[in-house]
Amino acid sequence: MTRVALAFSGGLDTTVCVPLLEEEYGYDDVIGVTVDVGQPESEFDEAEETAEALGLEHYVVDAKEEFADLCFESVRANATYQGYPLGTALARPVIASAILEVAEEQGCTGIAHGCTGKGNDQLRFEAIWRDSDLEVIAPVRELGLTREWENEYAEEKDLPVEGGGGGKWSVDTNLWSRSVEGSELEDPSYVPGEEIYNWTQAPSGDTEEIEIEFDEGYPVAIDGEAYEPIELIQHLNELAGAYGVGRTDSMEDRMLGLKVRENYEHPAATTLLNAHEALEGLVLTQEEREFKQLIDQKWSKKGYEGLVDAPLVGALEGFIAETQNRVTGTVTIRFEGGQARAVGRDSKYAAYSAEHASFNTETVGKISQEDATGVAKYHGFQRRLANESIAANQDEEVELATDGGEE
Ligand code: ARG
């Protein structure tokens, strides 16, 4: 008996995959696997109900802890892609690994997803799965299915596809972000209303300040209360979401080159990323901050690609860990007008001296202000010489041109 494990959500795509894996790919048995990375309860209910109606053997794996840990690694790397925090992207390798584990335990020889051939997720899933010997199957992509065809097929086969699914939008939710695309949003000029948002309120005039504590770059407490990563993220999503923090509307350049209009909500992620960067600003030296931007950018790129297990990422994290040793302290964040702005920071590792920088003291420790005079004389010296010679040569050319004109 041949078995195939299917990444299963209970939505239209993955539901039609179940009979197709038997009919078109010849498997005797399909098992569905849903991985919990912090989706709302309703999604599990939908998956469970659909699985039951299909008579599908269904597994639910809780990977929230692993995913939350990865989100926190992304905070240490200040990770964003084209301006938004990585949610979907970071979840995919976690989901893929969990499904692969179930597939191997259950003696499957195939592993399948319901992604189309247009998005990033097919690449992120398969990067993990193709490390194994299982047959990787992508029915929607391989059979060239459209939504319309899927709907007709589901009706014909009497598949349980009604209701649920979050309506007309295509939504992807996990602890770190909620992504909304499709339908009218496919028109980049379409201005969405409040109905696309679920985690964030439209910003009101209200404000609130909270204090976030970091230990070696990891968020550990809010307003003096310690939280485990999952709970900290959930708590902060609610706190910051109430002030409309973390909305993004962007034209995203996907890995295959397509541009796609994406809307996101990510209140906790935005708050933590802003706070973390503010603390780095206090403790890291200018040259560390400058160089770390390059490291962070590379980390983010690998994160976006779903390749966080690449050796490069391990090497980057070596550098990151070395800098994060000192990223311990607290940041005060103010929620205001849809923003989460750092308005105060404190660390015992501050590379800062109020006494040295102050307008009220005459000297910089043992250095007197006059000592800066010599530096000021040198500052911009080469450019002065270069500009003088450019100007002199221009004068000469003007003279020659004028002489030539007179002859
Ligand atoms: N484009 C984003 C990414 O690749 C997220 C896509 C989420 N999918 C959705 N149906 N909203 O990371």
UniProtKB/TrEMBL annotation:
Homotetramer. Its main location: cytoplasm. It catalyses: L-citrulline + L-aspartate + ATP = 2-(N(omega)-L-arginino)succinate + AMP + diphosphate + H(+). Residues 3-160 form the Arginosuccinate synthase-like N-terminal domain. GO terms for cellular component: cytoplasm. Transmembrane segments: none annotated. PANTHER family: ARGININOSUCCINATE SYNTHASE. L-aspartate binds at T116, N120, D121. Keywords: Amino-acid biosynthesis, Arginine biosynthesis, ATP-binding, Cytoplasm, Ligase, Nucleotide-binding. GO terms for biological process: argininosuccinate metabolic process; L-arginine biosynthetic process; urea cycle. Its EC number is 6.3.4.5. This is Argininosuccinate synthase. One of its GO terms (molecular function) is argininosuccinate synthase activity. Belongs to the argininosuccinate synthase family. Type 1 subfamily. Residues 169-385 form the Arginosuccinate synthase C-terminal domain. L-citrulline binds at Y84, N120, R124, S170, S179, E252, Y264. ATP binds at A7, F8, S9, G10, G11, L12, D13, T14, T15, G114. Gene3D superfamilies: Argininosuccinate synthetase, chain A, domain 2 (3.90.1260.10), HUPs (3.40.50.620). It is found in: Cytoplasm. InterPro entries: Arginosuc_syn_C (IPR048268), Arginosuc_syn_N (IPR048267), Arginosuc_synth (IPR001518), Arginosuc_synth_CS (IPR018223), Arginosuc_synth_type_1_subfam (IPR023434), AS_cat/multimer_dom_body (IPR024074), Rossmann-like_a/b/a_fold (IPR014729). Pathway: Amino-acid biosynthesis; L-arginine biosynthesis; L-arginine from L-ornithine and carbamoyl phosphate: step 2/3.
